[in-house]
Amino acid sequence: MEQAVERVLVECVPNFSEGRRPQVVRAIVEAIAGVSGVYLLDTESDEDHNRSVVTFAGPVEEVLEAAFRGVREAVRQIDLRHHQGGHPRIGAADVVPLVPIRGVTLRDLVPAAQRLGRRIAEELGVPVFLYGEAATSPRRRDLSFLRRGNFEGLQEAMDTDPERRPDFGPAAVHPSAGATVVGVRKPLIAYNVELATADLEVARAIARNVRESSGGLVNVRAMGVRLEKRGTTQVSMNLVDYEKTPIYRAFELVAAEARRHGVAIRSSEIVGLVPEDALLDCAEYYLQLGGTWSRRQILERRLNEVEGPR
């Protein structure tokens, strides 16, 4: 009897530097969704960040085609010379990560990221950097290093620092679309905590004490952001390995630092999709579940076990 072959499934979570013009975001999403075999999973836009995150999945080749079409539409529609927002960015299509979900590994996806990066550079004239598992040097693994100085400072960085020269395309910033970062990474959780203060320096101080690069939590990237429309501030975080540094640990440290500054937490949010186990980690922590507790007690999981594959 032949064994069933596991179907390869890849997630892609491109971040586009547009969160205020719905028609532009819609055009980008339609370009992505127009590829047969790709599943559009989620779209989220933030006006203060002026940024949109699109999540889709499918087989490798289909995902690469959809990612390219999304980047192409962003290059057509977004001009960074007129872009302002709270989130760092160097490109109209700022970052395009590939994430292994099923039947494929991080290492397997590196050649795919290279092919996508080369195509973006050759066909669209946008310089491309590789990051994460696809990075060509240790410093370039970190997205924040490649974004340093933003779009406005990128050309000078390319001219003066060999580590900031692109992997594909000319060492010249595209006049309106900047540059794009393509990479391979584990599932990442974009997690933000809103503070009950408009003082940006307080938010920045909390972020500084939370992020790994300043001696905070391993696997946490954090920055303080002003939310103009809400009249408040936010600690915006990327949890790059939730299995080692869970959501609740990041939240508790932000809360402790906020108390130290005499500031309350207004709310928190998850941007985009999140692995189920990451939320279960939080439930188990706050409910102090132990003893005989097992995740097999979750109704839907038990039903999936007894029903089997459908």
Overall description:
The chain has 9 helices and 11 strands. It is of the alpha+beta class and 310 residues long. It has 2 domains: 176 residues, 2-Layer Sandwich (Formiminotransferase-cyclodeaminase, Chain B, domain 1); 108 residues, Formiminotransferase, C-terminal subdomain (Alpha-Beta Plaits). Strands 1, 2, 3, 4, 5, 6 and 7 form a 7-stranded mixed beta sheet that branches. Strands 9-10-8-11 form a 4-stranded antiparallel beta sheet. A hairpin with a 4-residue loop joins strand 9 and strand 10. It is globular.
How would you summarize the topology of this molecule?
Elements: E1 9-12, E2 15-16, H1 22-33, E3 39-46, E4 51-58, H2 60-77, E5 93-102, H3 106-124, E6 128-132, H4 143-147, H5 150-160, E7 180-184, E8 189-195, H6 200-210, E9 220-227, E10 232-239, H7 247-260, E11 265-271, H8 276-287, H9 299-307
Parallel strand pairs: 5-7, 6-7
Antiparallel strand pairs: 1-4, 1-5, 2-4, 2-5, 3-4, 8-10, 8-11, 9-10
Keywords: Cytoplasm, Folate-binding, Histidine metabolism, Transferase
Organism: Carboxydichorda subterranea
Pathway: Amino-acid degradation; L-histidine degradation into L-glutamate; L-glutamate from N-formimidoyl-L-glutamate (transferase route): step 1/1
